[in-house]
Amino acid sequence: MIIGVPKEIKNNENRVALTPAGAKELVKRGHSVYVQHTAGEGSGFVDAEYEAAGATILPTIEATYEIAEMIMKVKEPIEQEYKLIKENQLLFTYFHFASYEPLTKAMVESKAVCLAYETVEKPDRSLPLLVPMSEVAGRMAVQKGANYLEKPLGGRGILLGGVPGVLPAKVLILGGGIVGTQAAWMAAGLGADVTIMDVSLARMRYLADVMPANVKTMMSNEYNIREMIKHADLIVGAVLIPGAKAPHLITRDMLKDMKKGTVLVDVAVDQGGCIETCKPTTHENPTYVIDDVVHYCVANMPGAVPYTSTLALTNATLPYAIQLADKGWKKAAQDNQELALGLNVINGEIVYKAVADAFDMPYALVEKYLA
Length: 371
Ligand SMILES: NC(=O)c1ccc[n+]([C@@H]2O[C@H](COP(=O)([O-])OP(=O)(O)OC[C@H]3O[C@@H](n4cnc5c(N)ncnc54)[C@H](O)[C@@H]3O)[C@@H](O)[C@H]2O)c1
Known about the structure:
The protein is α/β, with parallel strands linked by helices. The chain is built from 13 helices and 15 strands. The chain has helices at about 20-30, 45-50, 60-65, 80, 100-110, 130-150, 180-190, 200-210, 220-230, 305-335, 335-340, 355-360, 365-370; strands spanning about 1-5, 30-35, 55-60, 70, 90-95, 115, 170-175, 195-200, 215-220, 235, 265, 285-290, 295, 345, 350. Strand 4, helix 4 (about 80) and strand 5 form a beta-alpha-beta unit. Helix 6 packs across helix 7. The relative contact order is 0.14. The longest helix is centred in the C-terminal third of the chain and has 30 residues, at about 305-335. The chain is globular, with a radius of gyration of 22 Å. It has an eight-stranded mixed beta sheet with strand order 3-2-1-4-5-6-14-15, with helices on both faces. A seven-stranded mixed beta sheet has the order 9-8-7-10-11-13-12, with helices on both faces. The structure holds nicotinamide-adenine-dinucleotide (NAD). Nicotinamide-adenine-dinucleotide (NAD) binds near residues 268 and 299. Nicotinamide-adenine-dinucleotide (NAD) binds next to helix 6, helix 7 and strand 8. This is Alanine dehydrogenase. Its EC number is 1.4.1.1.
């Protein structure tokens, strides 16, 4: 198959969909890989590394779309790219269709085949191509939180791990899923006194088994949250209710009960945030202060660490990309239900029900194309 890897042009997007190592795997299997000039630069991979792996460098985004049967990307195509997409071309990338109607309409009109990272799903209902970014954001939440707890940055001036003779900081994590667990490992590793709150007893049993002694678990409810926030130095918001807006577990009135210089990192901000006073911020301007409480609410945290994020993402996407390249999208999806669930748009028809429902658009069963 002919695979094209364009450079991401969305503002501040430095990730790339394929590393030189990934290119080598695909070339080894007899596929042709075309990478747009400087596509990997933001993640630390130069053109020469792709060429050494057997890929060909193309000068422009137009040439990359023109030649490819499968386009591998990170972010959804933006308007400038719509006209470059060809009928029957396979696009393998994040789309998040339900949040943007013009993109959905453009992809329907293009008659391309859109396989979305975010809906590839394993039999246990986990989303293998979303997990890596949650892992990055969870770990980063504590790194950022520790930083903003420093006095010159508005925080309480407390060291997360304390020192001999001085108690460590208290870290409260709301939600013990992927983000919360990774945040807990980092905070615990730095010596903080960590509490994870969740509503799932099964999840907390698991966490209690695997976490070190400085991590405790506690049922998440309003009473417990009101008690815990009085003592917390760093609070990480990591709650997710699939398909819904995050619940506001910390409301505006609770800020006055917190210590001056407490830091809130609301990772769930992309789903509306689990802290009422959180509104999306950017890496250029990541924090603001309300009632002496520092809020960090960057909506695309992994964007700040493109090297790690690219490797984490491509570790997860490459095995699927290989199946798609080896077999073509139809056979790959027939053989692997995880990939079939990733199909969102095929040749002008929406085949993922939630996307069609979001815009009241017609919907066709994916089986029609896989029979
Ligand atoms: N800001 C970013 O850059 C970024 C990056 C990656 C993920 N995220 C977001 O982080 C959030 C968490 O993602 P995840 O992958 O960890 O999800 P997840 O599904 O693995 O975990 C969510 C957890 O929240 C728990 N939960 C649900 N209701 C709760 C409540 N009332 N109180 C406490 N816990 C509750 C669930 O039981 C589950 O354990 C999502 O909104 C995701 O979109 C943001």
